[in-house]
Structures are given as structure tokens and as C-alpha cells.
Design brief:
This protein is mainly alpha-helical and about 110 residues long. The chain is built from four helices and no strands. The protein has one domain. Helix content is about 50%, strand content about 0%. The mean pLDDT is about 80.
Length: about 110
């Protein structure tokens, strides 16, 4: 299975692998390996998790995909229904159609 990557996704994988290495062995410094001056700490931690589970590149991709799906689901659950395009009463939100128009019978 080939998971396409674009942008700087490969860099996050490299940082994750570099950060996981000293965490799983006694070699190297976790701070020096996990610190990135331009990457958010949370993203470094998230990209490290798959490498803490496995070292196989295909399994790393599946673990990262699973984490992304789970986190997306959690994020979707935290959005209030009024912000997700649905009114609290269950009807679709959007502009109201306005008052009914009168019809004139010219007969």
C-alpha cells in the first residue's frame, strides 16, 4: 500500500522516527531528538506515536492513519450542532425562505 504524501509530511515522519529512537533505547537525548524550533510540540508528539508502536513503514502509515481518523472523529464530536450546519431542533440551518408570497388570481 502506498500512502501518498505531500508538502512537508515526510519531514514529520523523519522527526517522529528521530524522536522515537532515544525514547525506545538508551542512546541519544530525547530532548535534542524531539525538539524542533519550527514544528509544534504537539505535532512532534503525534508524529512520534506511530514509531513507538512499530518500525515497519507500512504499519507506521496505518497507525498514523488510525490516529488521524480517531482525532478527526473526536474533533467532529466537539463541534456544537449549531455550528455543524444543523439547528438544535434537527432541521437544516440556513437562511429562512421568508414569508409566503400572496398569489393573485386575475380570473
Amino acid at each position: 500500500m502506498n500512502f501518498p504524501q505531500f508538502g512537508d509530511a515526510g519531514i514529520y515522519s523523519e522527526i517522529g522516527a528521530a524522536c522515537a529512537s532515544p525514547l525506545t533505547s538508551a542512546q541519544g537525548s530525547a530532548f535534542l531528538s524531539c525538539y524542533s524550533p519550527i514544528r509544534p510540540v504537539g505535532m512532534v508528539a503525534l508524529s512520534t506515536l506511530p514509531f513507538l508502536v512499530t518500525r515497519d513503514p507500512l504499519e507506521v502509515a496505518y497507525v498514523a492513519l488510525t490516529l488521524n481518523l480517531v482525532l478527526s472523529r473526536c474533533a467532529a464530536e466537539t463541534v456544537p450542532p449549531s455550528r455543524a450546519g444543523v439547528k438544535i431542533d434537527g432541521s437544516a440551518s440556513g437562511p429562512s425562505p421568508g414569508p409566503p408570497r400572496a398569489s393573485y388570481d386575475h380570473g
